[in-house]
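Support request from a user on the community tier.

User writes: "When I paste my structure tokens into the form, the page sometimes reloads and wipes my input. The last time it worked, I copied everything first. Here is what I submitted, just in case something in the input itself triggers the reload:"
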């Protein structure tokens, strides 16, 4: 696994409504193939936003795993670790998005006074996670920070939370207070060198029953309070101080409730991890991804965490710090193939609907779930899915309901690039094309015309307006394909390592939206104006240059367990 962070919050308000219907059936794009054709309808309520994400909602992680990290006989990490990743690779620099790690709680930090060279992770079956402790050389820390600075990345770094503790044989309970001396030394070194860190996260997967080890909630809360004191002390002269984040583990309601209650003055972000598909070795991963009921079950941790945060005294927000879907490095040709965009985009839509501010994908590169190919650095399909979300989906989340087959998943947000809204449709059916009619609910105090007058105004407006559509399909219709087609065109980096342009189809708003089997559609409606979107002008006013970078935030998460150390936000 790795470590990744993300947050979102929801805002609700109520006003009067007027209703209009816009015929939208995925236009002139058929995606090829034959089969059944069904009709369905989407109702988007634009009166109020049901949630709000951070501008940097999309992020990804970098991990610590060495090349000899293997799962089920497959070694999928190569040189993708924070310690050995080729920072000079142009594709990586152009795609820069994400970073984090599982060996986080086994990482020690070299001090300027150390005379001995930094030891690397070495396989040792008697050690937790099968590896010895490893060391982060300050020379590498310097290189990483120069890379982040050049790329314009915002960094979240995960700290080793097991330092100074004793791990019991019975259930892996780690007892004793956190030894913060090494972390304090690293933070002080970072500040003295002028490096900018957006946040410091403590620990990786030590909450609840933990993974390999666990820490009691009251002790973890005490340690977070210690970290907050260190941050306040070292950054005393800074107007803006880094965030303090934790616990970066799997959600456990009782554990999280106690932890949040005892850190309400020191914690800014509550982070949790998502691997709800099970082990990467399982042969039914695609069945789960294509099962609407299984996907629906993924909302539970988002909903439960919000039920703890909302009535509590804390002002902390929720992030998904790490999400790889299938643990133990994922599954080749599933979690790094087209089919995984169904799960990934559905998770983004669901998480944003339940108040998650940021969602970090495991990984940017490394394992079988990277956004980039581990050896070639070429973007996998999910990279383009994430990039489209980042460019099109704004902060404010709209209530979206679909009426028809349960194989269609729908989400909508106020648009990011321009006025209007963006609708996401995911078709999980292998043989059915769905023609989607979109209805909208809105309210405007100046609208006092009759229903007939409103209808005539809408028809006149739509006769001259257009929308933009982005249809995503797998090459040759193969769900295992690592090649994505955008509106029928193969997406691949240029000879100079640049990400290709993502060009939409321009379609008359009078035409319906046609969602082909096993396809994903983003539809941008620039001429739909909602009150819920009037407060999101800041998110829709981003410059094209800013959005093209797709690298606005990297979260560095070094936890001490083998976990991703850096998270990057798009």
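"...and here is what came back when it finally went through:"
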């Amino acid at each position: 696994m790795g470590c990744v962070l993300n947050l979102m919050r929801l805002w609700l308000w109520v006003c009067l409504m007027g209703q209009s219907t816009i015929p939208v059936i995925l236009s002139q794009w058929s995606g090829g193939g034959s089969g059944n054709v069904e009709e369905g309808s989407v109702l988007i309520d634009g009166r109020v936003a049901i949630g709000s994400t951070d501008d940097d909602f999309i992020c990804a992680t970098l991990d610590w795993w060495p090349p000899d990290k293997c799962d089920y006989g497959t070694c999928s990490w190569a040189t993708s670790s924070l310690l050995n990743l080729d920072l000079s690779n142009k594709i990586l620099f152009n795609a820069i998005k994400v970073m984090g790690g599982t060996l986080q709680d086994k990482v020690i930090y070299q001090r300027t006074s150390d005379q001995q060279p930094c030891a690397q992770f070495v396989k040792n079956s008697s050690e937790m996670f099968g590896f010895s402790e490893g060391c982060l050389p300050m020379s590498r820390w310097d290189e990483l920070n120069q890379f982040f600075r050049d790329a314009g990345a915002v960094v979240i770094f995960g700290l080793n939370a097991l330092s100074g503790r004793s791990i019991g044989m019975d259930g892996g309970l780690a007892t004793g207070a956190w030894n913060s001396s090494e972390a304090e030394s690293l933070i002080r070194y970072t500040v003295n060198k002028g490096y900018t860190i957006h946040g410091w996260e403590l620990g990786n997967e030590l909450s609840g029953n933990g993974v390999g080890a666990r820490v009691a909630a009251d002790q973890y809360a005490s340690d977070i309070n210690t970290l907050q004191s260190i941050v306040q002390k070292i950054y005393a002269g800074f107007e803006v101080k880094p965030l303090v984040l934790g616990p970066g583990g799997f959600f456990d309601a009782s554990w999280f409730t106690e932890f949040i209650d005892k850190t309400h003055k020191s914690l800014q972000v509550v982070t949790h991890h998502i691997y709800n598909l099970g082990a990467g070795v399982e042969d039914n991963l695609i069945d789960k991804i294509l099962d609407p009921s299984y996907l629906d079950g993924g909302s539970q941790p988002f909903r439960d965490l919000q039920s703890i945060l909302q009535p509590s005294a804390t002002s902390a927000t929720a992030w998904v710090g790490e999400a790889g879907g299938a643990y133990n490095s994922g599954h080749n040709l599933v979690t790094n193939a087209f089919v995984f965009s169904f799960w990934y985009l559905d998770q983004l839509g669901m998480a944003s609907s339940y108040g998650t501010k940021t969602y970090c994908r495991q990984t940017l590169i490394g394992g079988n779930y990277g956004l980039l190919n581990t050896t070639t650095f070429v973007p996998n399909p999910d990279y383009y899915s994430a990039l489209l979300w980042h460019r099109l989906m704004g902060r404010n989340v709209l209530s979206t309901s679909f009426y028809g087959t349960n194989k269609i998943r729908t989400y909508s947000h106020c648009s990011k690039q321009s006025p209007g809204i963006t609708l996401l449709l995911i078709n999980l059916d292998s043989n059915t094309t769905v023609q989607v009619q979109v209805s909208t609910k809105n309210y405007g105090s100046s609208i006092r015309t009759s229903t007939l007058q409103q209808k005539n105004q809408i028809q006149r407006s739509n006769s001259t307006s257009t929308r933009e559509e982005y249809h995503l399909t797998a090459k040759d219709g193969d769900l295992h394909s690592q090649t994505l087609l955008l509106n029928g065109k193969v997406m691949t980096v240029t000879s100079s390592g640049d990400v290709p342009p993502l060009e939409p189809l321009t379609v008359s708003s009078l035409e319906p939206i046609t969602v082909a089997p096993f396809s994903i559609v983003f539809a941008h409606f620039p001429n739909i104006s909602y009150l819920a979107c009037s407060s999101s002008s800041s998110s829709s006013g981003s410059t094209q240059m800013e959005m093209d970078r797709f690298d606005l935030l990297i979260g560095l998460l070094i936890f001490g367990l083998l976990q991703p150390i850096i998270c990057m936000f798009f």
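Agent notes: The reload is a front-end session timeout and is unrelated to the input. Confidence is low (pLDDT under 50) at residues 1-28, 97-103, 443-462, 536-565. The two ends are 20 Å apart (CA to CA). Escalated to web team.
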